[in-house]
Model the fold of this input.
Amino acid sequence: MAVVAPIRRQVQLCIGKEGLPVGSLVYVRQGRRENSVFAYGEDWLANLACFNVSADLQLVPGYQPHKAASPHDSVFHGAIADTAPDAWGRRVIARDYAKRRKDDPKLPALTELDYLLAVDDFSRVGALRLRNLDSAWHRTVAAGRRSTPPLIELERVFQASRAVECGQETAEDLRYLQGKGTSLGGMRPKCTLVDEDGRLAIGKFPSVGDIRSVTRGEVLALKLAVRAGIDAASARVVALGQVPVAVIRRFDRDETDGRIPYQSAASLLQSSREEERSYTEIADAIRTYGHAPTQDVRQLWRRLVFNLLITNVDDHLQNHGFLHVSHGQWRLAPAFDINPFPDKDRESKTWLSEQDGPITDVQMLLARASYFALDEEQALAVLGDVHAAVANWRQVARSSEVGLRATELNDFAPAFEHEQMDVAAALLGR
Done:
């Protein structure tokens, strides 16, 4: 059996629109074993504005190792891993590479670094950026050009994505989709795009297996979230003929296209995907790292109530995020990836606390409200806001902003009309 030579590759980690050097990332693969090390640069450590970009790093000189805690975890430190392609993006990359290996069997297998570097620099989530030691940005294009498609190309992206889903993609489809994936999401087809006003957004497409209008359902959830007093990503439906696409504004860019540092709740908690973690732990992390901790833990509790009442049970730690404010302080990012699941049991993926387990009812949330800086009166006021918003779901669903047909409302009704809404109404005297 031939011995495979180890792979060692080094890239420079930079940050922000200006590409300020942060440090050096080294990836190593020996056989099937993969790991990475990262070291902050001297200039970054000497910068008065420097901060720790990932909670599992220390703001000190010297290389800091990282290896995957489980087969489902990344070989990179948390905030770096947060910029890697999601499951849909990996699928596109792997399909494209498989086609190329048919033509050239000598091509080596893809590594985790290959996936990390396959995201377009222009649209990489957060503020972290990667470049070669010769200062060339990974997956970038010449000045004055961009590979992130404008909204008017949405139809082309959808058709290419649908071809991938159906296993009928051409090499041209795959070339077109390369780099257009996102880090914020899962297996559902989607792309990064430039909206009509020049701002970055995510386009989410219907899947071939959908039995209801999932894209309109997500926009409905985000619209209701705003009505419930939640800071949520801006969203709208764009129709491609009869195909509804959810266009959701990216929140990791500012008004001047400046890049805002981001890390997921999983990164902030330094959590493995195989661990059961809790919202009280997120609250603890907010108190440790938060720019406005009381405001954010209260906002977090409001989101927990909302998730329960709309049956959003896909609330894993990658679906909660944080944006850097200054000097190592972080704020809760706008809510995203919130969806009603009418066909699922009303039980959260993330536990309320180690003692409570998954969230299943309003009473357990009220019992823990004090942990989120809310007294009984304040908690009931929040419950009232959220209940009123969710109770109005049919009107919002039928609005031109969402566009669900009357015949489609029954598909979603179990997510919004259930016994926990009745419990909340009784507690509120409604």
User: Anything to note?
Assistant: The mean pLDDT is 93. DSSP finds 15 helices and 14 strands in the chain. The first helix runs from residue 42 to 46. The CA atoms of residues 11 and 132 lie 5 Å apart.
